[in-house]
Design goal:
mainly alpha; single chain; 128 residues; elongated; 68% helix
Length: 128
């Protein structure tokens, strides 16, 4: 009986260690400056991750700042590929992430206004 319990405990331990993700695989959405398609993305990252916005993001389980960075990076890639229509649409999608948070009552429109204004002013893609 003891032997079976020890074998079961060891197999669970070994299986758990084998299933642990590697640090590179654990969070593929976390981006570094060298992973961005355009230099202006680093400035946006610094703005979106400012500590003064932590209360805005606190009620939103979606981690909107990372989702927005991912979408805007795709917009930068579309801009580099000379696809301005796709780039504009992706910027609209990025802004919509915050608007969706307002619709879901995660935060108020006044909470996201400084963030969305910053994005509109600093993204070099014309939004119509």
């Amino acid at each position: 009986m003891k032997r079976t319990a020890v074998v079961c405990a060891l197999s669970l331990l070994i299986g758990g260690v084998a299933l642990m993700p590697k640090s590179v695989e654990s969070a593929p959405w976390i981006s570094g400056g060298e992973a961005y398609a355009a230099p202006w993305m680093k400035d946006l990252e610094q703005e979106l991750l400012k500590k003064e916005y932590w209360m805005v993001y606190a009620n939103d389980p979606r981690i909107p700042q990372n989702e927005v960075l991912h979408i805007l990076n795709r917009a930068a890639k579309a801009q580099q590929a000379n696809d301005p229509a796709l780039a504009r649409e992706l910027v609209r999608q990025a802004l919509n992430v915050f608007e969706e948070g307002v619709r879901r009552h995660y935060y108020m429109p006044s909470d996201i206004e400084p963030i969305t204004s910053y994005i509109r002013q600093h993204v070099p893609i014309e939004i119509s």
